[in-house]
């Protein structure tokens, strides 16, 4: 595999050509890691017959893999006529090289049976688990086979950081690369990066210099808790339980997107995201209503801004389809539910909801966080909780990597009275973090609710 290749990032030439069992490429955003890996893989495929397993933690659709990156690099090098590209495979016509695409979470047992793999490329490897590595490492048995492990560092406690960076194994070449070694960046992106440096040095170091955080104690929901909840029903042998709810985060103006989460009992079974502007609210509401009809679910929707009009659309759709789908408004800035009750009913010294939470959004996120923490304790420590105090996420859901990121990113904050609240979208934007649409829809689908009287049409249009 030690051959010259088309010019990609000159800074990485020695990284790709140094003999190694494990190639670990890590660093901040805009550093060309994935683009370079795709380019070098394409080059190798044109020179010799290789079998490349392209893996990532969660991949329920081909669009979630590196398939698109490979296609772009093939076109960039003017090699399209040399490859046969189908909807789910890429093969070189002359050498017979092929690229296979798998999600580790769903297909780890299937991957064990694969033969003749030359390269296992693990993209976005920050979510790789120790158990998965123990299966993957002996799976690549072919002489000269390699692992390509690419990731943006998250936490020093993550397995991939501890295994390959803090305690680097033999026959491993690792390379830390950042945006300042990427010769292909536009001035526009460079200006964005410098603006981040000026705004927040700590976030700049994490996002663009690839420096892992020491811990995640500042966030509302810890990443390890969310990871433990993936397939928690299966791990703990629990039924999902009764009740079906759809959380609907309505897109604001600009590039924001709509998102929905379907909860079946305690388990999130469906995650969707799509574009749809203000003028397409009716179409988006129809999409959500269709999911609710199919699942016989109640709708919980964001009623701030554009979403304020969603309720009337749901009412019209109920009339059109002769259904009585319940729909409930969620206003993040509303006051808390049961403000006089204590946050821990078992502890008479704990503060009341009204004294502890700044608003309904904070109360909702903290209640969901408690269920995630309980689930982590149940899965990892064998502790027992009532089923309704746990939470599970189906591994068959789309966008799982992003959902994990979004749920475990917002930090706790405080208002002027010292009550806790959740980091706002505006403050997330200052950290160069996009609106957490998936997480918002997820939390809405698990929000507490005030009881409201039914209307004459059988629908509920109240506050939580």
UniProtKB/TrEMBL annotation:
Domain Phage terminase large subunit N-terminal: 22-211
One Pfam family here: Terminase_3
Domain of life: Bacteria
Matches recorded under InterPro entries: P-loop_NTPase (IPR027417), Phage_terminase_lsu (IPR006437), Terminase_L_N (IPR035412), Viral_DNA_packaging_terminase (IPR052380)
Classification via PANTHER family: PBSX PHAGE TERMINASE LARGE SUBUNIT (PTHR39184:SF1), PTHR39184
NCBIfam families reported for this sequence: phage_term_2
Name of the protein this chain belongs to: PBSX family phage terminase large subunit
Native species: Pseudogemmobacter faecipullorum
């Amino acid at each position: 595999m030690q051959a010259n290749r088309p010019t990609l990032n000159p800074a990485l030439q020695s990284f790709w050509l140094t003999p190694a069992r494990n190639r670990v490429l890590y660093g901040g955003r805009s550093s060309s890691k994935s683009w370079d890996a795709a380019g070098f893989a394409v080059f190798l495929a044109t020179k010799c017959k290789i079998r490349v397993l392209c893996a990532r933690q969660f991949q329920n659709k081909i669009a979630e893999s590196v398939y698109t990156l490979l296609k772009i690099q093939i076109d960039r090098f003017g090699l399209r006529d040399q490859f046969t590209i189908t909807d789910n495979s890429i093969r070189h016509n002359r050498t017979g090289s092929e690229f296979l695409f798998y999600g580790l979470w769903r297909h780890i047992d299937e991957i064990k049976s694969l033969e003749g793999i030359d390269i296992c490329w693990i993209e976005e490897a920050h979510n790789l688990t120790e158990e998965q590595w123990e299966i993957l490492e002996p799976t690549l048995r072919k002489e000269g086979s390699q692992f390509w492990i690419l990731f943006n560092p998250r936490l020093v406690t993550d397995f991939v950081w501890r295994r390959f960076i803090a305690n680097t194994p033999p026959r491993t070449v690792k390379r830390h690369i950042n945006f300042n070694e990427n010769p292909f960046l536009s001035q526009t992106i460079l200006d964005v990066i410098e603006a981040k440096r000026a705004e927040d040095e700590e976030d700049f170091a994490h996002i663009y210099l690839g420096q892992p955080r020491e811990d995640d104690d500042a966030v509302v929901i810890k990443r390890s808790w969310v990871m433990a909840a993936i397939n928690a029903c299966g791990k703990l042998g629990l039924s999902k339980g009764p009740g079906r709810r759809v959380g609907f985060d309505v897109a604001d103006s600009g590039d924001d997107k709509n998102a929905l989460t379907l909860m079946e009992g305690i388990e999130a079974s469906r995650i969707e995201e799509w574009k749809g502007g203000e003028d397409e609210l009716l179409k988006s509401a129809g999409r959500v209503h269709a999911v609710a009809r199919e699942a016989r679910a109640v709708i919980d929707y964001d009623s701030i801004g554009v979403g304020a009009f969603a309720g009337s659309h749901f009412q019209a759709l109920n009339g059109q389809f002769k259904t009585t789908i319940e729909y409930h408004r969620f206003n993040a800035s509303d006051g808390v539910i049961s403000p006089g009750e204590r946050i821990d009913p078992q502890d008479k010294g704990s503060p009341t909801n009204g004294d502890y939470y700044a608003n309904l959004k904070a109360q909702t996120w903290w209640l969901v966080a408690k269920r995630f923490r309980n689930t982590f304790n149940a899965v990892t420590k064998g502790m027992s909780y009532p089923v309704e105090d746990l939470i599970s996420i189906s591994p068959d859901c789309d966008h799982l990597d992003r959902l994990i990121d979004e749920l475990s990113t917002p930090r706790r904050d405080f208002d002027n009275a010292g009550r806790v609240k959740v980091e706002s979208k505006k403050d997330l934007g200052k950290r160069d973090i996009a609106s957490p649409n998936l997480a918002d829809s997820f939390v809405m689908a698990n929000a507490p609710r005030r009881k409201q009287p039914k209307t004459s049409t059988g629908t509920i249009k109240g506050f939580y």
